[in-house]
Predict the structure of LOW QUALITY PROTEIN: PR5-like receptor kinase.
Amino acid sequence: MNDNARIEAFIIKFGSFAPKRYSYGEIKKMINKFNDKLGQGGFGSVYKGKLPDGRLVAVKSLNETKSNGEDFMNEVASISRTSHVNIVTLLGFCFERSKRALIYEFMPKGSLDKFIYSQGTDNQGHQLEWKTLDDIAFGIARGLEYLHQGCNTRILHFDIKPHNVLLDENFCPKISDFGLSKLCKRKKSVVSMTGARGTAGYIAPEVFFSKFGGVSHKSDVYSYGMMVLEMVGGIDVEASQTSEIYFPSWIYKHLDQSMNLNLNEEITGEEEEITRKLIAVSLWCIQTNSLDRPSMTRVIDMLPGSIQSLELPPRPT
């Protein structure tokens, strides 16, 4: 069965669960002939658009050459099963021969990465207050916990990183981009993988090396931990893969020293407390052995607490 027939069969099987289907002509009209580009990735490009009822949307147009249909089907299958304040809403899709597009609710603040890297070209790094970062970390944790525990089918995301967290006008975070996700039965904890999936710097050790345990929802927990460290330190984890310092070890060393990690920025006692707590939680999340990592349910319990109530995690290896 060729790709097109496979996807068509998949859409029919989905029946009423599938979001609204649009023609390619409707998509072009919706995004005003590709005039307002929001971003670009390996998968294709994202454009700002408007539905006939006036709602703003983001339309992800998938590359014809890069997409074999699996990413497209993953995204439609996974996200159609979700309904949560911290998961982006899929409003529709287009599948017309080689033309494939996904239509999402529009998120006015864009992706989280724009707000956390100190090296940002327009130096937006840490414009966000610590309380806002704390709320964002908690919202992402709630979204992930929902994917792991709240759906009838457990969804493993496999690409949690700041670029895939979108922010609405109130900085409420929503997890997006389910192109690499896997669906698995609730009772089944370990999934089989053919080849590593994810982004360098965020991929859990067991995805590469089976001696560290099976690939499971704990692999998303690892990615979440790396992302929260990144939010605290303002360091691009993907880029820092090439540097000599292993970022988690460096940050662990600073945990007992002054927590002034951010370019000599003065922080208050309350902000220092938030920082220490976020670091302690994320260091638990990135433990090498997946069995030592907390579930996202446990992370949600840890985040509202104080640093005093948290046991300090072992040093990362």
Notes: The first strand starts at residue 20 and ends at 21.
